[in-house]
Every structure is written in structure tokens, then in C-alpha cells.
Design goal:
The chain is mainly β and about 80 residues long. It has no helices and five strands. The chain has a five-stranded antiparallel sheet with strand order 4-3-2-1-5, with no helix packed on it.
Length: about 80
């Protein structure tokens, strides 16, 4: 099974939060989403999300992240 798992780089958009505490309306800065890149092993790929693991073995995975498909800008298969 481990040979069938693809290593990929996913470029995606993540949310961003503002500073803690109250902010004055007149002092608000732009709060745009953040462009991210994540490299890992694509252990699940559905229409709704992609799950990457940072490490894999024959019977275990380590460090999974779920990325919503609507946030994905680009997926590149790595060698």
C-alpha cells in the first residue's frame, strides 16, 4: 500500500485572524487570507477535502492535516 501513496505539494488559502482584544473601527488593517504550501503524503482525496500526512510507514501515518478542497489552488505530484 505504501507504494501507492503519492507525495504532493498543495498550495492553498487559509484563514487569518486579527489581533486579540478590541480594535477601533478607524484602526482596522486589511485582514486577507494567507497563501500556504504544504508537502506531504496524500492519504485521502475526496471532493470535500484532501488529507496529507507528514510521514507514512506500512501500517501507520504521522501528522495529518485536512485541507478543504475549496481552499486548494494547486496540487503538484512530487517524485
Amino acid at each position: 500500500m505504501i507504494q501507492k501513496i503519492k507525495k504532493v505539494e498543495i498550495e492553498w488559502i487559509d484563514s487569518k485572524s486579527g489581533p486579540d482584544g478590541w480594535e477601533r473601527w478607524d484602526d482596522l488593517d486589511s485582514l486577507e487570507p494567507v497563501k500556504c504550501k504544504t508537502v506531504g503524503y496524500l492519504v485521502e482525496n475526496t471532493d470535500e477535502y484532501k488529507i496529507l500526512a507528514s510521514a507514512i510507514s506500512e501500517n501507520q501515518v504521522l501528522g495529518r492535516i485536512a485541507i478543504p478542497s475549496v481552499c486548494v489552488l494547486k496540487t503538484t505530484v512530487l517524485k
